Amino acid sequence: MTDQLTICVAGASGLVGSNVVKAALARGHRVKGTLRDATDTAKTDPLMDLPGARERLTLHSADSSDSASFDAPMAGADVTVIACFPPIYRAEDGTPARELDRQRGYEEIVRPVRDGALNVLGAAQRAGVGAVVLCSSTSSTNPPAALPVKHEALALSDAETQMAEGKFTAAEKIVMETAARDFCTHHDMRLCIMLPTMMLGPVILPQHVDSDSHALPSALLRGEKRHETTPAGSMSVSHVEDVAALFLAAVEDPTARGRYFCVKDSLPWVDLYAEFAKHVPESALPAPLDGTPEEPTRFDFTRRDSLGVTLRDIPTTIAETMDWLKSKPFG
Ligand SMILES: NC(=O)c1ccc[n+]([C@@H]2O[C@H](COP(=O)([O-])OP(=O)(O)OC[C@H]3O[C@@H](n4cnc5c(N)ncnc54)[C@H](OP(=O)(O)O)[C@@H]3O)[C@@H](O)[C@H]2O)c1
User: Fold this and answer.
1) Which atom of ligand 1 is nearest to the CA of 12?
2) What is the per-residue pLDDT across 2-27, written as a single tens digit (0 to 9) for each?
3) What is the CATH number of the domain that holds 180?
4) Is 13 in the pocket of ligand 1 (CB under 6 A)?
């Protein structure tokens, strides 16, 4: 057992955040979690029902547009996990991010995430929090010239290139990471940047069954097609509890710093559908791929593995997810 820490989890009601809360409580830590409305019992009840929550979890209302709202949850924390920046897909008036010009895309999609992250980091710094574990995404790991094998140090998206292509929702991540890195360097705070991808596995809050990641297995289980034809490309996957374990390893290891893939691997859709086919009705399955699958993304997992977490393989993750969904956990 490691020493007990106090961890502020910003975004405790999120898919990632709730699993980090669960893992942190299971490891004996105290947790101060945030969501925008800590009186929303639809979100707080499942968190307060986690083992250890009644003794060691407090929940606080905080919004990333208001730095001071994070002062109370950050007070007394040793480490903060920041997982409160879900991707923004639309501008304030509903225009899809991809249809925006450079100025609106930056102001309405990218800047709010950058400024929000600096607001949360500012509260952490004011409270004397020494370490930050920031949740980003593999969407920040696509440099203009594709790499044969992705390594965290080289797989850096270029924000201007992404914005020129209308990819503001992806650009927000690398801009957030750069701002966080500069802030933490300036204030001598340890920073780990975690790079998850599609995450499957059981979820804690019922609303996450319909989240980006779980929409696919949920639809397939209902017999609904998500693809008419099997795509030629590939998809990276990991188990959300393994992702949470990687976050906790980064929290607890005082030597951990820098970027870490939170990915088990990337598999061609042909192989993913072969696994889903073991669990879902035939009506959900796409027509076979006409041709050969593309090479999946390849990763160098040296840094991920340095955190000492063993990740489930993808067939196991898919089987666990489907069995869990079939058990109708939320009625
Ligand atoms: N889910 C995926 O498949 C996936 C894949 C790759 C990367 N990621 C990355 O993982 C991170 C977390 O994603 P997630 O899927 O866990 O997101 P999520 O389930 O949508 O949760 C987001 C969390 O942030 C909070 N939040 C939202 N807006 C906020 C604001 N303005 N101020 C303060 N808190 C706010 C939410 O609280 P409320 O209860 O107040 O809404 C919730 O706790 C993101 O960086 C995302 O890009 C996710």
Assistant:
1) 43
2) 689 999 999 999 999 999 999 999 99
3) 3.40.50.720
4) yes
